[in-house]
Fold these 2 entries.
Entry 1:
Amino acid sequence: MQSTIRNGWAVNDCWNQIGVGGDRSCPELTTVIHCRNCPVYSAAGRTLLEREAPLEYVNEWTNILAKSQPDHSGSQTSTAVAPLAQTLSVMIFRLLGEWLALPVRLFQEVTQPCAIHTIPHRSNELFLGLVNIRGEILMCISLENLLALETITDSPHHLSSVVPKRMVVVARDEERWVFTVDEVCGVYRFQLDELQAAPVVISKATEAYTKGVIRWQGQKVNYLDSDILFYTLNRRVL
């Protein structure tokens, strides 16, 4: 089996040769179904993550961090690196006509929609039912119902019948929830001083779950309060 050189490291990327990314001739596929379930794939990932950083990478960040240290007067000599406590990484997604964001650490998976199995006398507008995500049964909720979002038919993003939806798995501690979104846009990192107060024009329900508003590619994005979100789901569903 040939190895691929990545950043100076030899990686046995058999998944790109005989696995799901190649000709699918690997005999282990009959057991593991997908390469991500194979120990060889996991071991390769750990090797990449645990490898020593290249010397030029270490030198570059040493210089950047040195410039960001305060001088003897206590003032910053450079603002090249923002303090970690003042920045936040979020995942931005679209639901109906609204752009929303949650801390990226909550996101476990984004996958294609699957069947939602309703539960007699339990399923409703908020709790839709159960879904099977990679063999695990999880509870699926309607985020648009929770936020009281309305379909905006004249919105340029009203493409629900054209653009395939995605299912998102979010988790905090032992809590895991699944909800459907229209589009996942990716990860965005912003400084906390960029967070603006939520405008009064948004719906009262959405406002209750919104910490603030950020601007992303010309769009207004509601940054949701994950603490209130998880608390409400536990109180209203469980």
Entry 2:
Amino acid sequence: MLFGVTRMPAKCKNVLVVDDEPKIREVLSAFYQSKGFQVFQAETGTQALKVFHSENIQLVILDLMLPDLSGEEVCNAIRRNSRVPVLMLTAKSEEDDLITGLAMGADDYITKPFSLKELYARTEAVLRRTQDDLIPLAVRNSFRDGDLVVDFEKNSFYKAGEPVSLTPNEARLLAAMVKYPGRVFTRDDLITLALSDEFEGYERAVDSHIKNLRQKIEDNPKAPVYILTVHGIGYKFKGE
């Protein structure tokens, strides 16, 4: 079977599982079906886009390495006219790849091997975020405001004309917030979206990363204008 669909009741969310490995597609399809999703499958990028444009897909689980189009190309094609959440799967672990996945417009990024429990936690998180009324700037790979210039695709960051070196976690936190200007994130939201599993349960790690990030991009870290604290809740990005 090149691609297919497991039918569920009409009220179920439609998920598109894109992976060239049949066993992974079968496992993920069975798992999402058990959670009440209607599951569509594709093994290539071309098939994925065909299904995406012909069905009312509400979530895409997208492998980065495909036999024709890359996962980045598929994600870019989806992002041209859709804000459907995309969760990328990859066997890669290089820091630049982790940042690039979000730069391409993915809502989250998970590295193989992964547990189904973790995958579903991330699924719930991205669906919860994208149900908000706020419209993200997810199609943007760059942001320019005053003397702050960031380009997530090139992984370059400048403050007052000088290059700024961000860690992968700092870059992922910034990318996440820039996509949703004005969106209030709890620390748990940011852990799920931007930080690796080792930070699970350690919400104050987010505060440390935010503090370091402010030191690098704010004129006055004690009176920030970009990354604002929402007392009792978390943080938000004040952009355009």
